[in-house]
Write a structure and sequence with these properties.
The structure is a single chain. 32% of the residues lie in helices and 18% in strands. It has helices at 2-17, 23-27, 34-42, 45-50, 62-65, 74-82, 92-95, 184-190, 194-203, 205-212, 240-248, 258-262, 323-326, 381-418, and strands spanning 55-59, 85-86, 102-106, 121-126, 132-136, 145-154, 158-163, 217-222, 251-252, 282-286, 289-293, 298-308, 311-316. The radius of gyration is 35 Å and the shape is elongated.
Amino acid sequence: MGALHIFLFTLFSISISIHAHNITEILSHFPEYSEFNSYLSQTKLADEINSRQTITVLALPNGAMSSVVGKHPLSVIKNVLSLHILLDYFDGTKLHKISDGTTLSTTLYQTTGNANGNLGSVNITDLKGGKVGFGSAIPNSPLASTYTKSVKQIQYNISVLEISAPIIAPGILAAPAPSGDFNITGALEKAGCKTFASLLISSGVLKTYEAAITKGLTIFAPNDEAFKGAKVPDLSKLSNAEVVSLLQYHAVPSYTPIGSLKTKKNPIPTLATNGASKYDLSASTAGDQVTLDTGVDSSRIASTVIDSTPFCIFTVDSVLLPEELFGKSPSPAPGPAPDISPAPEVASPGPAPDASSPTPMMSPPAPPMMSPDGSPAAGPDADSENSTAKKNAGNVNAPALMKVLLTVSVSVIVSVYLS
């Protein structure tokens, strides 16, 4: 029983620890990383860190951060810090037990759509003298940063390690910040969203998108196959205003990367949202997969075209259909009505037999049934029928009752073991 108690308690503890980390709260206890912590929040990288189960954060002390901030726009700072977030778990012990002395680890930067080849990976090398070096995975890049100390670990969930200097990949500091001059349609066409790009141009909504970039914009672009779906309405039958609302519905007027979408609990307003016209959508998460729900249909976020603060583009598998234009999703069709056959009619008693009629043959009376002591030998017919109905009802509901009792019993037993 003691072993079972320990086993159940362990399972309970594990279930609580999943997704329990909060990088902002962890670093708030270490003022030497206050600047690093602040920029994780400003770039929305904190949301991405908190949404993942296995992660390693290479924290930079305030002095080391000065070489990055103040000289570059927020989009570049985000790219640099993304290289310091490893999609694997490393603690001090694991760093010194790297197979063959060196390994490449994928970072969050690789998931942004901005990294080609190994640009989004980090080289970790166990150096002589007990040191561990970090650098870009691009060949011939220097190991300009070293492991300083362990800061905080939640085993196999999140590890925070301090390193001495920023990891800088070739060309990462020269990346231009997105602006109104960014070629949105060019990026969409390259990503296989030519139909969507064409609609943006013909409707004039492209100018709305371009004007919103500098303040923050997230675009959900249906790919070309999405417009061939059976549920997609005939756009030629929509008015110009409705087409504009549909296209504006595919963009959010804020910078909302994947990590932020994973943490969204409330409805998300879109560019089409205006007063009483809600035009909002919701996001749900299963693992690393994010699905958008419009109330009419849902669509999976398929890929990242660009993620560069304060602007990002994602491709989606389906055209997003707002309730305001296309109504709510249809309710499931009702099942066939049960076949209730009328009860057979009971023949009314006929007239009393005529004395002159021949007496019918009667069956011999059944032997008397033994009744329990104290039971009436006979009762009214109505009571007999009610008694039979109650017995039948008890027999029908017995399995359901047993199921409820078993469920409650199991719950009580588990609670007792955990208490």
